[in-house]
Design goal:
This protein is of the alpha+beta class. 34% of the residues lie in helices and 26% in strands. It starts with a strand and ends in a 9-residue tail after the last strand.
């Protein structure tokens, strides 16, 4: 997927944790093989060319496409799996794959906490220690090396943090209405939600919407909080975000 993954596992029987890690890493490589639009022979590339049907693909393909369709419905089309008229579900695949990897590891015997970070998008499960929550720093897009906020998972059995923006990867978010790079007043959108599958999608959709519409829409989603930073160094946030900072 063109990025770095890291794993932080607390507790658990060593042999069980190692087996779960191996399984999770293999699943991430498998997701890349199946869904990469850069591989001509991947199932998603062959599906896009009409060489395969969804039923002939791995079961994960139907699962991801169903999730993507739900994301498109909830976002009123601002999240889409169509890029320049071609099937491209990569906007949901990384979040889905990271969340799935975290859950595989969390199921290992004795594990009390898991953090999986895929290119800056993080799925947290359980806790790292007694009365000690997971904490995730949110990069400041205007001040390299600085933090705009720190998100705490205190009191949450599962929490995800996903950021979409142009600071590191340039203008890579596409406006699904035009098929071109999104023209937006935002530099970054960080979404906090229980599941990374959705946090990743919502951050992408809100970034394409722009600050005003994106914030309004994110406020309407249950269990979702967000931090938005504009090109003018204006910081906006959802009403419940303060309870997640610390």
């Amino acid at each position: 997927m063109g990025t770095v993954f890291s794993f932080d596992v607390r507790g658990g029987e060593p042999a069980a944790v190692r087996a779960a890690l191996d399984d999770a890493v293999a699943a991430l490589h498998r997701a890349d093989e199946v869904f990469s639009t850069y591989r001509d022979g991947s199932e998603i590339s062959r599906l896009a060319r009409g060489e395969l049907t969804v039923d002939a693909c791995a079961p994960e393909v139907a699962e991801v496409l169903e999730l993507a369709a739900e994301a498109e419905r909830v976002s009123d089309g601002w999240f889409s799996t169509r890029y320049e008229g071609r099937l491209d579900p990569t906007g949901i695949v990384k979040g889905w794959a990271v969340e799935r990897a975290a859950r595989r590891i969390a199921a290992a015997a004795g594990v009390r906490g898991v953090s999986v970070n895929g290119g800056g998008d993080v799925q947290l499960l359980g806790t790292p220690g007694a009365e000690r929550p997971w904490r995730v720093g949110v990069s400041d897009p205007l001040r390299p090396g600085g933090l705009a906020a720190v998100v705490s998972a205190a009191g949450a059995a599962e929490l995800a943090v996903a950021t979409s923006g142009s600071a590191e990867r340039g203008a890579h978010v596409v406006d699904p209405r035009t098929g071109r790079s999104a023209v937006t007043d935002l530099l970054s959108v960080t979404v906090v939600a229980p599941r990374l599958t959705w946090a990743d999608c919502w951050a992408t959709a809100a970034f394409a919407m722009g600050a005003r519409e994106g914030l309004r829409w994110l406020e309407s989603l249950e269990g979702v909080e967000a931090l938005l930073i504009t090109a003018g160094d204006e910081v906006r946030w959802t009403g419940g975000l303060a309870a997640r900072l610390g």
